[in-house]
Amino acid sequence: MAIPKIQNYELPFKQDYPIAKVNWKIEKNRAALLIHDMQEYFIHFYGDNSPLMQKIIENIAQIKAWCIAQNIPVFYTAQPATQQDQDRALLNDMWGPGLTAYPEQAKIVHQLAPNEQDHLLTKWRYSAFYRSDLQKILSETQKDQLIICGIYAHIGVLQTAAEAFMNGIQPFVVGDSVADFSLEDHLFALRYVQRNLGVVEDAQHVMTSSI
């Protein structure tokens, strides 16, 4: 099964998902930003000039600029252009060859291209923590909050948020800076985060209410 073509949908509002069970607030000296899987290959499934994806990219770019101004480190995940079968493993059964069949689409979209100081993590599974240095770097730099943007909300974003939580790192998923296969999938992810493991914020709130 390949990733389906994705239809545009309207981003959800706060009233569409429950209030968080915790009162965590983003603290600039504790936080890091993760831009998850914003590679050309994954963006391609939204079609050309997707209003949804244009809005997501715009919001992520604003959050990244804010993070840089606040000295908050920025991490990216990206699958490698070529992957051996033993590296993809069960991903082959679930999604087919994926990006490996389109290595020319491995770059991060140009609007969000990493800067020299950003951390680029090689992505092997749904979670950004799997076989990466993310947890080690966060620990060494005394960061225990992770602001998460990108795609896809109910797969890699949610799995990354869950693993952050299980490792003592507070996850903050930016609800209008993630996208998914559908509004239903998008809302599933946001509701799961609020009920079980973290906080959902919108981009504007991230940039104006952090301490």
Automatic annotation (TrEMBL):
Pfam families given in the database record: Isochorismatase
Keyword Cell cycle in record: no
Keyword terms: Hydrolase, Lyase
Coiled-coil spans in chain: none
Gene Ontology terms for molecular function: isochorismatase activity; lyase activity
Domain of life: Bacteria
Ranges for domain Isochorismatase-like: 31-203
PANTHER family: ENTEROBACTIN SYNTHASE COMPONENT B, PEROXYUREIDOACRYLATE/UREIDOACRYLATE AMIDOHYDROLASE-RELATED
UniProt name for this protein: Bifunctional isochorismate lyase/aryl carrier protein
